[in-house]
Design a protein that fits this description.
With 159 residues, the protein is mainly alpha-helical. It folds into 2 domains: 82 residues, no CATH class; 71 residues, Alpha Horseshoe (Leucine-rich Repeat Variant). It has 9 helices and no strands. Helix 6 packs across helix 7, helix 7 runs parallel beside helix 9 and helix 8 packs antiparallel against helix 9. The N and C termini lie far apart (44 Å).
């Protein structure tokens, strides 16, 4: 089915699969904004979306962190329990994701490394290029390609 969709969209083989982590990330970002919306319709639709796409244990962890109906103090307590290390920057947060024991969180972290061009975390991507988890492996490859493209762009601009 994926191959048929790629052909219909004139994509190269594997291109759609490599984009899935980004699409998943974008949908989660949209859902997080909707959860924080004052519109009850958006809020309820976001909850329904997350109920349908996230595994139960992950949903129970993520939704309270995003839902503005949960107090800030409760969200901070949950976040501190989930990530015992102190995090002072986005790069540190992404480093925690990349170093996680959960392949899904590692994939999100790898995706973020590529999107934000975090060359300081490129060595983490190298570790996952041959990982048995296909999502993590492909996300690391995609992130490496993004970093290489970023370097090429920077080289051309400085010339």
């Amino acid at each position: 089915m994926i191959r048929s969709i790629e052909q219909a969209l004139n994509l190269r083989p594997g291109e759609l699969r490599r984009g899935v982590p980004l699409f998943a990330y974008l949908f989660l970002v949209i859902a997080s904004y909707a959860l924080q919306s004052k519109s009850m319709i958006l809020h309820d639709n976001a909850l329904e979306f997350l109920d349908n796409v996230l595994k139960t244990e992950f949903r129970k962890m993520l939704v309270p962190l995003l839902d503005t109906k949960v107090s800030l103090a409760e969200r901070v307590t949950i976040a501190n329990r989930l990530v015992p290390a102190r995090i002072d920057s986005s790069e540190q947060a992404i480093a925690v994701l990349v170093a996680s024991n959960d392949p899904c969180l590692r994939s999100w972290g790898a995706c973020a490394v590529g999107i934000f061009g975090l060359k300081s975390l490129e060595h983490e991507l190298d570790r996952y290029l041959n990982h048995p988890d296909p999502l993590l492996r492909e996300t690391a490859r995609d992130a490496k390609l993004r970093l290489q493209a970023s370097r090429a762009t920077n080289t051309r601009q400085s010339s």
